[in-house]
Amino acid sequence: MSLFKRNRTWWTDFSVNGVRYRQSLNTTDWRQAQSDEKKLIVDASMGKLAPASKKFARLAFIEAADRYLENRKLELSEQSLKKERQLLVGLRRFFAATAVMRIGAEDLITYRQTRAAQGVSSTSINMEIGVLRRIFKRAQRWHLVADDIRPLKEKHQMGRALLAREKERLLKMAQSRPEWFNVRLAQTLALNTTMRGCEIKGLRWKDIDFMERTLIIRRNTTKTDAGERVIPLNASAMAAIMELYRRSQDQSGAEPDHYLFPGCENSKFDPTRPQTSWRTAWRRMTRAIQCPMCGLQQDPHNICQNERCRTDLREVKSPTAGLRFHDLRHHAVTELAESQASDQTIMAIAGHVSTKMLAHYSHVRIEAKRKALDALSSTTNGYGTNSDTKAELTAMPYPQIIEINGRPVGTRTPDLVRVKDAL
Fold it and tell me: According to the model, what pLDDT value does residue 120 have?
């Protein structure tokens, strides 16, 4: 056991049960250093102090990230853990073997600038820094950089509601190619149930009640506790479910634990695994254009792919280009709001809806009401109310008073009854 100085600061170097501990005491006072050292020795003997050779802050970032994920397994669901692992990909690549304790505020600022230059959104960068912050807090390093690292401004996108012609075009486009079978039925479910993409992918046949025409969204397939819910199926959603069921029967994959959208690899379906993504099909479908001259449907090109046409298509763009699959949920909730559904009804069907989203949908309802009232102003037959206030007053009947056990019910005091009798 010994105390020594480094740059006027006292350090301690001692061993407990053969394990060596060495760290700064962060004081220049010798008596304070002695007191702090005794406390550290007690903590080390009780197993509360990490040895110098195993300090988390001394680990390479890659190793620290692995330990962080291992510890988070007990705290997070499988979906959340997968998200954390994805957010660490860029951080691992950038910091690699650099020790956590060697990463400073300037390094984090450089990382954010690099990611922004790669076209990564501010929201994604903030989420990546959020994972790094949790790693730094475990290493007791975040307080050293917190003042220099502020969240980037994010563009909060409420979502996009489709125009009637855009929705019709999207539905017709999905039916034009057989390889878009999955994305066609998935979008039908999203538009008619408000389900998220992850909720649709996680559906199993045991979640479908054919007799009651309902489906269950379970907690392990949704984002929040409020997302766990029962959704009634309308005619369009039920037709999509039946189409999926017939396909599953043909592929011997209609067992209760099998997925509605099974995984597929090398053209072989595996109903025990869910489909991971339909991003490629969705992008091709939403970006597909139609030549104004020959009507050929095709991917975006500068020149029409019809050899006999060859029309310049550089100015032709799909009206649904850039549409996210999640926007279908937004559109479905918007239609619910326009149908005058209450906030409670919307939340019961859609699950968790943020306060900002509900405020946005309330504006949608006001706009729908305004259009309905504007229609009244176009009528020619008016109704005069100038003389309404001059109408003769008529005697109003007394409200019926019910008595139970001799006492009146529905009035504030029995005295009111006596006043009535006196009249």
Answer: 92
Residues in contact with 47: Cβ distance below 8 Å, sequence separation at least 6, in sequence order: none
CA gap 253, 269 in Å, rounded: 9
Taking the C-alpha atoms of residue 111 and residue 231, their distance in angstroms, rounded to an integer, is 43
Q: What is the DSSP letter of 214?
A: E
Q: Which run of H or of E encompasses 190?
A: helix 181-193
Element (H, E) at 412: none
Cα R_g (the chain), whole angstroms: 33
When pLDDT is cut at 50, 70 and 90, the band that residue 52 belongs to is low
Domains detected in the chain: 2-54 (no CATH), 57-148 (1.10.150.130)
Residue 403 is predicted with a pLDDT of 43
Which two three-digit tokens encode residue 52?
């110098």
Q: Scanning the structure block, which residue is given the tokens 């005069």?
A: 384
- The whole-angstrom separation of Cα 127 and Cα 106 is 18
- pLDDT band at 400; cut points 50, 70, 90: very low
From 64, 83, 73, 70, select the one nearest 123 (Cα to Cα). Answer: 83
Alpha carbon distance 320, 325 (integer Å)? 11
Longest dimension (CA), the chain: 104
pTM: 0.65
Measured between alpha carbons, how far is residue 339 from residues 104, 195, 248, 367 in Å?
54, 18, 35, 12
- Nearest-angstrom CA–CA distance, 338 and 177: 32
CA 308, 281, 256 angle in degrees (round to 5)?
Answer: 140
Distance CA 394, CA 68 (A): 79
3-state secondary structure (DSSP) of residue 68: helix
Q: Is 294 helix (H, G, I), strand (E, B) or coil?
A: coil
C-alpha separations of 279 from 14, 79, 182, 190, 321 in Å? 57, 18, 11, 15, 13
Nearest to 61 by CA among 25, 19, 111: 111
**Other Cβ atoms closer than 10 A to 381:** 4
Q: Could you give the CA distance from residue 353 to residue 333 in angstroms, rounded to a whole number?
A: 10
Query: 385 Cβ partners below 8 Å, 6+ apart?
Result: none
Residue 250's Cβ-side half-sphere holds a number of Cα atoms within 13 Å equal to: 7
